[in-house]
Design brief:
Elements: E1 5-7, E2 30-31, H1 36-39, E3 76-77, E4 80-88, E5 91-97, E6 106-109, E7 119-129, E8 135-145, E9 152-162, E10 167-174, E11 181-187, E12 194-203, H2 205-208, E13 239-241, E14 244-248, E15 264-268, E16 276-280, E17 290-300, E18 306-316, E19 322-333, E20 338-345, E21 352-358, E22 365-375, E23 410-412, E24 416-421, H3 429-435, E25 444-449, E26 457-461, E27 472-480, E28 488-496, E29 499-508, E30 514-520, E31 529-534, E32 542-551, H4 554-569, E33 571-578, E34 589-597, E35 601-605, H5 613-622, E36 625-628, H6 634-637, H7 647-658, E37 662-670, H8 678-681, H9 685-702, E38 709-714, H10 721-726, H11 729-741, E39 746-751, H12 764-776, E40 783-786, H13 795-806, E41 812-817, H14 824-839, E42 844-849, H15 873-884, E43 888-892, E44 898-903, E45 906-913, E46 918-925, E47 932-937
Length: about 950
């Protein structure tokens, strides 16, 4: 069986009589694209290289699927057709056919696999097939694409090839600059002649030895690309980044010795945090490949006993754009060597790459014993967790009802526990939503007195009752005694092997019972787990009733949400068919297929991401909205006063506009002190007010009409920089001014931990209070942003927050959604919880993922696609849900010439299959409650 593949990149368009601008040497000089006709008349000699298949060992070949053993994987026919033939067992060859131009042939993108400097040898086994001509010239060519200059073509080699006889085409090439894209292809025979290819090898001779990285070729496999990694050759290949470096066999009167090997190096006389030891690794790293970094480090001197040490990558692209990539950080000490580990990936084709260590305060030496940078091993997919008898809904807290007094409970600290009567007999609402009908609570509660510390309260050990990877919901009634001065926080917490885990928090003001709700999950087997209640100021009594900790049944919740989604999101549609003979349409078979769901599902993008075509392809295929990670924030667009950088935002916006992807503007201001750049902090009150106005004028005038939303002042529940310096009215004025400058944009508030019950500063009640206060001051708040950085989500808790916020009548968006778990299946479950809750709630009008690509996420273990483009189980869950939310229907046109179905809003295609012809039409279903009648005129 053969598989025919059609492909057409933007092909050469030069006229057939174009002459070469320069002659071609054996090393392949850069040239303007010759015509196909001239390709046969290139007057260069054949390369004098003697590269053949045996010399170009497969281990060093940069061509993927060089012998077509995997069909046409990684190969593309250039505006022609191709298929693979198995001539005999174990031997395949490609046939390039339907060629209408000389330049049409088979190509492969080798960007990121070649570098500036080294000489690459090419050897290809080729043949032709034609009923008339007995020979033709086959040419090997490189297509070099640049962002900011014309595409050029580099001749590699040619060979006169006979019909039905395999010949070897050989050549060499060298790159003097690194293009953004490098494509290798074979071309040359006259139109109509089939080109046959058996194998292609492109190798760098230094790769055939034990990877002589000094020659500039990329290291393959697991080789360390760092030269002299343990300083056995002194300080060769190392240098100081703004400081001096020195070699040691010991320091501190022999107290500091190498952890391994004989030597270590120090970065000394450091005057800036970024000073450190570095090595240039240009030409030894490939773009779009993940690398893992391991360093053995410590610090010395300046009376600093511990400090953060960071590994950083500095990358410069051919257009002189600079990028700093944080790889890893670790707390180093002056007592012992510690290991620093991390990963990185370069999206763009780099012209220069330097890896270096930095971080400690000036005057503190960084000591480096060894550094390894090598291609990261692929992490095998995590299996689904095995959970036996999960006992969904069963409370694991012993004696929760307190019928047995305080048995199984103990006081944490020197407080006193006693049992009293008078607490609610019903479950708190969020627990009821999870558990359904439930027996009444006992009415008993634990009274905690004599509290001398905030952490004191009732506690219980639950170590043996927990199962790994299960999501547990926490629910309780809590109350505080009299004597409190102002609102008090009460929280359920867990001590997991001396690590604090948040189980839910609530702010209590007054002498009434309050619901507390939260969740947690444990993914590593603990030695000891204790649950306890804490929070109010010392001297304030705490009351606890009906504490429930139970695993949630997510699948049951999903079934409920599917039903709710159909009710909330879908609309009745009546297709009304008409034509010259309507009666003949009765009984005709019709197929309806949704091609796009209009519900906004977007993702965060950073400027560096769009240099990676694999990232871009996934992004534009699966998302219809975007938000920029950093590129619109004030500290990015004006890091130094008066020096503006809008190019990064412009680049992302241009990509989105070319694919009809809408964008959110995140964010105009950021209220949290740590997110404000130093020059802004140094301004006087009057100058700060002027700077705020300039920021509004500059940003919103430049991008007027281009961003559908703006987060006006990010995280106002967690920060108060601008309000603290400019007064309470500054926040409302920001909204008013933004609305005047761009009336088309919807203006949002945006904050975190609104939906999970674990932060009293950003409870739904506090958020509602803030929004109403802004509106009373005249701020045109048009939308509510919930960031959604959530752990172990529980549907009813999320739903409760949405219901509360929904009373304001404003559209709600999840603006920065991400979930985290080391297990891909659990991560997929978390993502499905959130997406289903979002899609099933009528007040939610969109969701944005805060990234999806590994190494470009703000949280570990939250990616949906790994660094090199493999979709994991969490990513597959997203794609599955997107398919589930695409409506399909079929049936026969009834006697009213109609077909009725219920579907999601979006674009549709209807296919009418008649006796003599098949007709396709498109239509759009808008959001609405009443049935939509769509006329289809045939």
């Amino acid at each position: 069986m053969r598989k025919l593949l059609n492909w057409c990149f933007k092909g050469p368009v030069s006229p057939t009589n174009q002459s070469l601008s320069k002659s071609q040497g054996s090393m392949g000089e850069t040239m303007e694209r010759p015509s196909a006709g001239n390709a046969e008349n290139l007057n260069s000699e054949r390369s004098d290289g003697n590269m053949n298949n045996s010399r170009g060992s497969i281990a060093s070949n940069i061509i993927v699927n060089h012998d077509f053993s995997r069909g046409l994987d990684s190969w593309h026919p250039n505006c022609c057709q191709a298929f693979v033939v198995s001539a005999e067992p174990g031997r395949n060859h490609a046939v390039v056919t339907n060629r209408k131009e000389h330049w049409q042939g088979l190509e492969q993108d080798i960007s990121g696999k070649v570098s500036v400097g080294p000489t690459y040898s090419v050897s290809a086994r080729v043949c032709i097939s034609d009923p008339i001509q007995s020979s033709a010239v086959v040419t090997a060519t490189l297509k070099l694409e640049f962002h900011h200059s014309p595409t050029t073509y580099k001749f590699i080699g040619k060979s006169s090839v006979s019909k039905d006889k395999w010949e070897t085409l050989e050549g060499k090439f060298q790159l003097s600059t690194l293009p953004d894209r490098v494509i290798f292809y074979l071309e040359g025979p006259s139109p109509g002649i089939d080109l046959l290819i058996e194998s292609i090898v492109i190798s760098c001779p230094s790769m055939i030895r034990s990877v002589d990285t000094r020659a500039g070729c990329f290291a393959s496999g697991d080789e360390n690309i760092i030269l002299n990694p343990k300083f056995e050759d002194g300080l060769n290949n190392w240098s100081g980044r703004g400081c001096k470096i020195a070699l040691h066999d010991s320091m501190g009167d022999g107290k500091i010795m190498p952890m391994s090997g004989k030597f270590f190096a120090s970065a000394t006389e450091r005057t800036q945090n970024w000073n450190g030891i570095q090595q240039e690794i240009s030409g030894r790293v490939q773009r779009k490949l993940a690398y893992e970094v391991t360093a053995v480090v410590r610090i010395f001197g300046n009376n600093v006993s511990s400090s953060d040490v960071r590994a950083t990558l500095w990358v410069q692209t051919p257009d002189s754009r600079e990028q700093y990539i944080g790889i890893a950080n670790s707390q180093a000490t002056d007592k012992d060597w510690v290991q620093l580990q991390g990963k990185f990936l370069i999206n763009a084709s780099p012209s220069k790459v330097v890896v270096y260590l930095e971080g400690p305060p000036p005057g503190t030496d960084i000591l480096l014993n060894s550094l390894i940078v090598k291609h990261a091993e692929k992490v095998p997919p995590s299996p689904p967790p095995v959970i036996e008898n999960p006992a969904f809904g069963v409370n694991i807290v012993t004696n929760s009802s307190l019928y047995d007094g305080t048995n199984q409970w103990f006081p944490l600290g020197s407080c006193t526990l006693s049992v009293k009567m008078g607490s609610p007999h019903i479950l708190p609402p969020m627990a009821r939503d999870s558990l359904g009908p439930h027996e009444p609570l006992s009415g008993r509660y634990i009274l905690v007195t004599n509290r001398t510390q905030t952490w004191m309260g009732p506690a219980q050990m639950i170590t043996d009752k927990l199962q790994l990877y299960l999501t547990y919901q926490v629910s309780a009634w809590v109350r505080i005694g009299s004597g409190a001065s102002g609102p008090q926080n009460v929280g359920v917490a867990l001590g997991v092997d001396n690590q604090w885990v948040n189980g839910g928090q609530v702010e209590i003001n007054g002498n009434t019972w309050h619901e507390i709700a939260g969740s947690f999950r444990i993914e590593k087997k603990p030695d000891k787990v204790m649950v306890y209640v804490q929070g109010p100021a010392s001297g304030v009594d705490v009351m606890l009733a009906g504490l429930q900790i139970f695993p949630v049944d997510r699948q049951a919740r999903f079934r409920h949400l599917k039903r709710q989604t159909d009710e909330i999101r879908k609309r009745d549609v009546i297709l009304k068919f008409s034509g010259s003979d309507s009666s003949s349409l009765v009984g005709t078979f019709v197929k309806v297929r949704q091609t796009q769901n209009s519900f906004p599902i977007g993702a965060c993008v950073n400027r560096t991401n769009i240099d990676n075509e694999d990232f871009v392809n996934f992004f534009v295929k699966h998302f219809n909205w975007t938000v920029f990670g950093n590129e619109l924030k004030w500290y990015w667009t004006e890091a130094q006063q008066g020096n503006f950088n809008y190019k990064d935002a412009d680049d992302i916006l241009t990509l989105c506009q070319s694919h009809n992807i809408e964008a959110r503007g995140h964010c105009i201001f950021w209220e949290v002190d740590d997110a404000v750049q130093s020059w802004v902090k140094s301004l006087s009150t009057d100058d700060l007010r002027t700077a705020v106005q300039n920021r509004l004028n500059g940003l919103l005038t430049r991008y007027k009409g281009k961003f559908k939303h703006y987060d006006v002042n990010n995280e106002m529940l967690h920060g108060s920089f601008f309000q603290g310096h400019l007064g309470k009215d500054i926040r409302a004025n920001m909204f008013k001014t933004a609305n005047q400058l761009d009336p088309t944009a919807t203006l949002f508030v945006n904050d975190y931990h609104v939906e999970d019950g674990c932060d009293t500063r950003s409870s739904p009640e506090k958020y509602i209070e803030q929004i109403l206060d802004l509106q009373e001051q005249g701020a045109p708040v048009g939308g509510i942003g919930i960031q959604g950085h959530i752990d172990s989500p529980v549907g009813p808790i999320v739903r409760s927050a949405l219901d509360k916020l929904g009373i304001l009548g404003l559209p709600i968006w999840f603006t920065e959604l991400d979930v985290s778990s080391v297990n891909e299946y659990v991560r997929g479950d978390d993502l499905e919880v959130m997406l289903r809750e979002v899609f099933a709630h009528p007040a939610v009008e969109g969701v944005m993922l805060w990234g999806f690509w590994e190494l470009f996420m703000s949280r570990e273990n939250s990616h949906l696609v790994n660094a090199e483009g493999d979709v994991n189980e969490a990513g597959r869950r997203l794609l599955y849900l997107k398919q589930e939310w695409m409506s399909r229907a079929h049936g026969h046109i009834d006697e009213k010439c109609q077909l009725e179905f219920r579907g999601f809003p979006g674009s549709y295609e209807v296919e009418i299959v008649g006796v003599s012809k098949k007709v396709s039409k498109t239509f759009v279903v808008d959001k609405g409650e009443s049935p939509l009648v769509v006329s289809i005129n045939l």
